[in-house]
Structure formats: C-alpha cells, structure tokens
Amino acid sequence: MPLVVTPTLDQLYAKLGDFIESVVPVGVVVCQMPTNRTAMPPPVPGFVGMTARVQARIMTNLDSWVDIDPTTIEIEQALRLAVTLNCYGAASSDWAVILQAVLRDEYAVGPLKPILSPLYTDEPMFAPLVDGEEEYEARWIVPAFLQYNPVVSVPQQFASTLTADLINVDERYPP
Q: Which domains does the chain have, with CATH numbers?
C-alpha cells in the first residue's frame, strides 16, 4: 500500500492562492513559483508568486486509528510552512502591505480553514528584479508563515478476533 499524505502541497497552494486572489485587485495573476519553461505573467497589472520554502515541525506526531478501516493508522503532525509571496508590478508595494496585514489578522483565518492557519509574516522587503531586457521590475517580498497538519495514512496490523487457550503449568510461585 503506497503511503498517502493529505493535504498535499498543491492543495495548500490552491487554498492560499484563492485567498490572495480575494484580497488583491481583479486581474492580478496569482501563481505558484518557480516554474520551468514558463514565462512570467505580464508585469501589467502585475502578479503574485507563491514559493514554499521550509516545512518545519512544530508538534510531535499524533497517531489515531481509522474507525472505518482498522488496518490503517493516521499519523498527524503540525508543520510551520514558510512561503515567500513575491509581488511584482507597479502596485506591488501596496499588495505587500495588504498581504502582511491580512495574514497577521483574524481576517485570514476563516477563508484559509480548514487546511491552513496563518501564524505570522515578516516585514515586506523591496527586491527589484532585473529582467531579460536588463530592465528593473518592481518586486516586494512578503515572508509568510502558516500552519497545516498533514496526515499520513499507513498500514497497521490488526486482529479482529482472538482465541485464547489456557495451558496448565505445574509451577508454584511462593509469596
């Protein structure tokens, strides 16, 4: 049986991307980065790129039996996911401020449930990008930290019936 993890990183990107699309202006592309052999979206109106960097453990494993399938055990762990949000475009500074504010507020908790929970963000940093035409592109980076609890399902030996027989042993154990 191959091991399975839920949620997957793609599901995390989808949930975070949907949230970011709800707070930046309409028409701003939100995408996963880096990608090979794919051009960056156009700089107008701009875009936000999401890059997962580190998955750090923040809790000891929690094992639980699956009631409907007793041959499976679920191993849950809590991870802090570090994601770099790269904002490109003329208004990228404004988007960085917006993302920092909402990801440090209760505003983001509901829309990211039940897959992600925002923890904190660091300060936005200006990091201009030199493109292929030797031109500077405005880029602001927001380091965001979120929690998610991936569950790995693993096979487990299980006995549904047990037969016990008594064997008389001629031994005495004095007090």
A: 4-155 (3.30.2000)
Residue corresponding to tokens 């960085």: 96
For 39-61, b where at least 16 C-beta lie within 10 A, e where not — what string?
ebbebebbbbbbebeeeeeeeee
CA dihedral (27, 33, 36, 39) positive or negative: positive
Q: What is the 8-class DSSP label of residue 28? A: -
Does position 38 have pLDDT exceeding 90, yes or no? no
Tokens 């875009």 sit on residue: 47
Minimum mean pLDDT among 6-15, 39-48, 74-83: which range?
A: 39-48
User: Amino acid identity of 82?
Assistant: A
- Dihedrals φ, ψ of 48, to 5°? -120, 125
Closest CA to 117 of 140, 83, 92: 83
pTM: 0.84
